[in-house]
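Q: How do we represent a protein-ligand complex in a form that can be generated token by token?
A: Start from the inputs.
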Amino acid sequence: MRVLAFSHYVDLALELISAGKGLGEVSLIVTSDQEGRIGEIRGADEILLCKELDSGDQEGLVELISGLGSEYDVVLLAGDRRGRELVGQVAHRIGASSAVDVSSLSAEDGKLVIERMTFGGKAVAVEELNLPAVISVQKGKFKPLEEGEPSVREISAPSIDRRIEVLERKEKPKVGVPLDKAEIVVAVGRGFKKKEDLKLAYELAEVLGGVVGATRPLAADLKWMEEEVWIGISGVRIAPKLLIVVGASGQQQFAAGIMDSKVVVAVNTDPKAPIFEQADYGVVMDLYEFLPVLTKKLRELKGG
Amino acid sequence: MADFDVIVVGAGPAGSVASYLLAKEGHTVLTVERGKRPGAKNMFGGRLYSWSLEKVFPEFWKEAPVEREVTKEVLGFLHGDRGLEIRLSARPRGRSFTLLRAKFDQWLAEKAEDAGAEVISGFKVEGPLIRDGRVVGIVAEGDEEMEAEVVIAADGALSFMAEKAGLRPRLSKEDFAVGAKEVIELPKETIEDRFGLSGDEGAAQLYVGDLTEGVVGGGFIYTNKESVSVGVVMRIGSLASKVSKISTAMWEITEKFKSHPLIRRYLEGGKLAEYSAHIIPETQFMRGVRLYTDGMVVVGDAAGFCVNYGVTVRGMDFAIESARAAAEAVHQALESGDTSAKSLSRYQEILSSGMLREFEAARKAVDLMEDERLYTSIPKIAVESLEHLFSVDGRPRESLYSFVRKEFSEEGISLLSALLLGWKALRSM
Amino acid sequence: MDIAVLVKQSLDVQELRVDQDTGKIYIEDAPTKAGDIELNATEEAVRLKEKLGDKAIAVMLSTWGASGKRQKEAREALTRVLAMGLDGAVLIMGEGAEKGDTYVIARALAEEIRGKFELVLAAEGSEDNFSGLLPARLAAELGWPYVAYATAIEVEGDHVKVTRSLEDFEEVVRVKLPAVISVTQEINKPRVPKLVEIVKAKKKPLDQKDFSPPDEPKLAIKTLKVPKVERKQIVIEGDVEEVAEKLVQALREEGVL
Ligand SMILES: Cc1cc2nc3c(=O)[nH]c(=O)nc-3n(C[C@H](O)[C@H](O)[C@H](O)COP(=O)(O)OP(=O)(O)OC[C@H]3O[C@@H](n4cnc5c(N)ncnc54)[C@H](O)[C@@H]3O)c2cc1C
Ligand SMILES: Cc1cc2nc3c(=O)[nH]c(=O)nc-3n(C[C@H](O)[C@H](O)[C@H](O)COP(=O)(O)OP(=O)(O)OC[C@H]3O[C@@H](n4cnc5c(N)ncnc54)[C@H](O)[C@@H]3O)c2cc1C
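Then emit the structure tokens for the protein with flavin-adenine dinucleotide bound:
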């Protein structure tokens, strides 16, 4: 099978190569802004270097990948927002099947069989995709390969009739320890009354040596977190050994992001909150009352 | 001109039946339900006596989502981990069906919709809209006003509509009982096997005994098609004085009931599908309720038409019948163009010549069931006496008569009053 | 400039029951509704239309067959968005639609949209599937530009200015109309319709059409599995000090401290 891969993020591209190698030969598209990192790329058979295109140009990418795509059986993209934005457009342009956020993939009888979460994480769909197929791969599911120096071939960018113009781009603050790699996470929800109160969670995370994550409303809507990163189906899926969920109701879309956690603790004033069904240990209590005491106890433990 | 001829608050059985009948007469009807869908929030034990709904929809069971027709009645006494069951296998007069409210209420509401009523769910009504001492509509959530010639309060046991319209006093905890119920899924064959049923036959099983720790109340099991409804009913008044948290107490007692050896064998291997709790109006408070005022009538649980027999509750049939009477009175009032209290008093008249007699009788029976000994001493004596009767271990035995007499005197009950109690209990059930 | 809002009839995943032991998923029993993010898309359409004075129409292609229950739910979902201020709705429904993949659905929707609308608003992902594939495919089918993850939209003549939120930056782009744009939950706060608006919404034009698949789907669902997540669900009771103590103890025993 011939596989074409691309990601806006070189780190994710490495995961795509790994996923693609299970299927066959992998060609990776590298854009001008990524050229400097070519040396880090392992495992791909070939690098298609397009010096005329920047990874910030979504329209250009749709055109480039759709143009190349018809020569491949499978196109792999990454599960970040821009990666996902490309999937449907490219698939439709080349008349391919499609799926996003795929957690496993294999070739069977001339089809691509994939698994992905559906129904807000309550089910996993096993789907059989006709070839060609365009899919995005879930982050963190495939380990980058260490071996294999790819050959490099330069390609040119197709000319396009541009209809989208980027006027402005504002960087968001960078994330410290990424949530999906953290061993201990304190997840906060709308149970916190104001931004300053998050201090209680940061203190708890600090004694535990963990990081603070949030539900979507807190991060994306209220923007109480320094970084706009949230846990869940539309955000990050985490897999810490300890997760303490504080003041979050545990709606399905959030719950989908915490399923791989080893031990889950929930603190919520509402005994009927769905989060308690997803927790190993439940504390039905006001977080303002409980967190300071817990933090104090843990501090004593760590200190002595 | 008012926005609607009639606004009905609540799409439980009472609300939907009233909506259906009035829409069918050609009146414009708006039905407002707080739950996400009709029935979404509603629960009950499990049995509908069909007499009243039959008058609205003859042979409704052929079409409505009912579960099973009750053909087996069981009365059980529990004491410690022992128990006694009395099984009546006969078709009593009048049909009754087990059902699940989520489906059934939705069906009834659809009937109302098909007849032309606008049924809107997910909207809470805050109270009646009152102008110059007359109810002229409703105030919906977000302070929105909506006018109607007549408002029908079918908003259930807590009825803020009736309270805010001054039709009933503010109620306290003591005016209610509580019920908790679980729906436990089991394969159809397992249910038929364990309860001795075939086809669409169903069982209704009631239990009294020490599980409620002296509180008036008991446990029930109703069989559905592929699940059983299991739960307990208890009087809050007596409960409130004993435990601080009613909801945890209800849950614990339900658990205790389910794990009793006699009950457990019915449920083994089943899967919990839902848990719910609800309040039940106690019949005493009815004494302070008025059923109508200018521009408004009250039906169903909101009017207190619910009888709590201690172990079992009956209210659906009364809710439906009262809604039917109200619909008739409201229809006449709308036709005559007079929706004053005087005109709507027809509602009470219709009830007085019909349902109220049945309701009064049922309520009298309840007064007899008040005796706490029915829930403590009687089950104990019944279980221990039979245990005594069937115990053979080669040692000389006391006669059953003297054993029973001793049991009674231990419980401080004379034989005569025991007989009376038994007789009353039988009569009231 | 007329606006189409794509409103998906989503399974209410919160109410969807799955059995972890038997792997059974009770899809038929679960209710459906308009997805939450579709309400954001509707709100945005209503705001734009209030400024532009044109029409905004909901378009729903139901993928749950055509049973009475699903029809009723579809109409209820549309009533809900109509009550928010849309001018009308198109409901496309029929047996066979449940087998349609995003390729088939996008093609069928394009038929309804082409020539009638200049702006299509959609949710970044549907509530039950959250793939975001449909608006992207629809744009490709129509040959229109596509911008996802919008957190603000402004119309400027025959262009729209869209602010969009990506993982590590925020972008402002200018897009030539006609275009397809998908929005996030953060773009606005959907208005809650009043009772009277719901009553009126039931009288707004709702055009129901039969679905006929324009082509064969390109994928098939083989199975749906239920992931097993086992949680102890122990509720720790006591006063604050006791609970904290017991929790720390339990976490130590788990070896996660
Ligand atoms: C398609 C789609 C995708 C989505 N994706 C995501 C996603 O990826 N991630 C995500 O998080 N959400 C997502 N959402 C939103 C999600 O549905 C919920 O709205 C969100 O998770 C709720 O966040 P919350 O728990 O912080 O807030 P709420 O649901 O408001 O819960 C707050 C909780 O705090 C408790 N509380 C209040 N006060 C206290 C106190 N003093 N002490 C203790 N507890 C207290 C309350 O009892 C309540 O349970 C998505 C929604 C849709 C439609
Ligand atoms: C544990 C238990 C067991 C029972 N067992 C039985 C039994 O086996 N057989 C039997 O016949 N009866 C039984 N009952 C009693 C029966 O459930 C009630 O009598 C019956 O439901 C009354 O019907 P209703 O329409 O008056 O009120 P409800 O069924 O309570 O309906 C009221 C409706 O109004 C809605 N509502 C309330 N407030 C508002 C508002 N402000 N705005 C909008 N909508 C509102 C509610 O959501 C609800 O849908 C039982 C009750 C309980 C609690």
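The longest strand of chain A covers residues 97-108. The CA atoms of residues 127 and 164 of chain A lie 34 Å apart.
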